[in-house]
Amino acid sequence: MTTTIADEPPARRNATPGPERGGGATLADVARLADVSRATASRVLAGRAAGKSASHARVLAAAEELGYVVNGLARSMMGVGRRSIAFVSSIMVGPTFATMAGGAEDIATAKGHLFTMCTTGGDLDREAALIETLSEQRVAAVLLVGSTPATEEFERRAQGYSDTLARVGARLILCGRAALPEHPQIASIDYDHRGGVRSGVEHLVGLGHRRIAFVGSLDDMTTPHQRFLGYQDGLADAGIEFDADLTVQSGNSSDDAASATVAFIERHPEVTAMVCQTDVMAVGVCRALHDAGIAIPAQISVVGFDDMQLVADLTPSLTTVRAPFHRVGELAGRIAVGGVYDGPAVLPVELIVRGSTGPVRA
């Protein structure tokens, strides 16, 4: 037996590109059932019509009967309705960015906005394409989160993003990154990276430490650079000459920091304290010291930065700098939903002293 496959019907000549229409009710369907114009139905469903007229009641009843759902994206692209707020980062790194995103989302959702989270993987072309797409969708604001290169190239790129977003009435907000003085229209909510590390070094000096190492990525990104400057500030305040040999190059992972620490302590047994760019690095440092039989803090004290939740549960618990990530997100969120921007903000941080630091060894 031979099975014959029928020819497919020819495509409509005037068909428009894009997804096929689903079976949902349209605004025209609601207007027809309620016996009103489409303009009236639109005003009622947008909440811009008086609520006591018979036509108002008929529109709501018709929408409920037909299961009509307002196309929020279409409305936002026409400049009406609730717009989304986008949280954009290179990667979603642990609880720090999650806490910042939580602060922004609390504000956005309280105002009825959709909150979206996007990552770029550090790909600049992907980042630029994402900003363009978000502007096409009439986003209300983009929160560009985390460390960026401290270069003129980044400033030009940020200006381009700001211009793209401004065309649709949106704005660019830097979170956890210092302001760009030449571009005051780009909002910035940051926290005191430099002062935080400086306070950690000051704490160690007060305990008698003089040979203090710094563990960090030591690149031209804003966060590592500011925290490294804080380390140098702390040494200078104490009259300790900066020694480049006491800087430990490491990626922002506990494994990288552990490996770098193993090699470093073999060359520098005189070091009595280590200040780390992040808590993630500090965890790796502590692991390497434990594995080497070096007691914390009796032989080497360790300071981190970020106050991730897990570091309070280490043995010993980690002395670290607590940054106000949630508050940064909240303030950025307030600007994103239309709040007043009074200029760049740099929020204070707090040194949290725990068991990983102690007096210099005798």
Automatic annotation (TrEMBL):
KW DNA-binding (keyword) present: yes
Record-annotated HTH lacI-type domain positions: 25-79
Keywords carried by this UniProt record: DNA-binding, Transcription, Transcription regulation
Start and end residues of each stretch annotated as Disordered: 1-24
Keyword match Transcription: yes
CDD domains: HTH_LacI, PBP1_LacI_sugar_binding-like
Signal peptide extent: none
Name the record gives this protein: LacI family transcriptional regulator
Species: Microbacterium phyllosphaerae
